[in-house]
Amino acid sequence: MIKKIAAFTLAAGLLVPSAVSATEPLQAGKQEPAATAQFTSVAYTTVSIVGKRVKFEVKALENHFNSNFYQRIAWTSNDEEPSVFNDNILSVIVAKKTGQAYQVTSYETLISVKDKIESGQKVYGWALALNGVWYPTMPATLYY
């Protein structure tokens, strides 16, 4: 009789963990999203002096620069998203309805740029996608 009780207890003990483990994959299926990863773009910024103007460019965009993919491109004086509150915007260009280029160019006067950034500092390019997220590009250094 004791052997039967022991065998029953052992069998019941083996069945209970099996039932629990059968529900574990369902719980594991409810995965929490991983920490938000910053999108890394292959796009990059170039900046140069052309006469009395500064030429800003973002090249190698993922898509054609038009309003089907982007809202605008901005260049900033620091690695924070473009914002009038940060006073970091050097130049902005708004996407047009049509466009086939994978790069964008904007010009600003050298005098206005000198007021916001020193020679030897980095210029950061940003692409504002339709989803409202600013995606950074590789920065460039401005020398004047």
Keywords:
single chain, 144 residues, alpha+beta, Immunoglobulin-like, three-stranded antiparallel beta sheet
Strand-helix topology:
Elements: H1 2-29, E1 44-50, E2 53-59, E3 70-76, E4 89-94, E5 104-109, H2 110-114, E6 122-129, E7 134-136, E8 140-141
Antiparallel strand pairs: 1-2, 2-5, 3-4, 3-6, 6-7, 6-8
What is the number of helical segments per DSSP (H or I, 4+ residues)? 2
Report the uncertain regions.
Answer: 6-38
The tally of beta strands, per DSSP, is: 8
**Radius of gyration from CA coordinates:** 28 Å
**Strand and helix order:** HEEEEEHEEE
Strand content: 25-35%
**Per CATH, what is the topology of the largest domain?**
Immunoglobulin-like
Indicate the structural class: alpha+beta
Q: Which sheet architecture does the biggest sheet show?
A: 5 strands, antiparallel
**CATH homologous superfamily assignment of the largest domain:** SOR catalytic domain
Shape: globular
How far apart lie the N and C ends? 96 Å
Instruction: Give the helix proportion (percent range).
Output: 10-25%
Number of domains: 2
Mean pLDDT: 82
Walk me through the structure:
Helices cover 23% and strands 32% of the residues. By secondary structure, it is an alpha+beta fold. It has two domains: 1-30; 44-141, Immunoglobulin-like, CATH 2.60.40. 19% of the residues are buried. Strands 3, 4, 6, 7 and 8 form a five-stranded antiparallel beta sheet that branches. A three-stranded antiparallel beta sheet has the order 1-2-5.
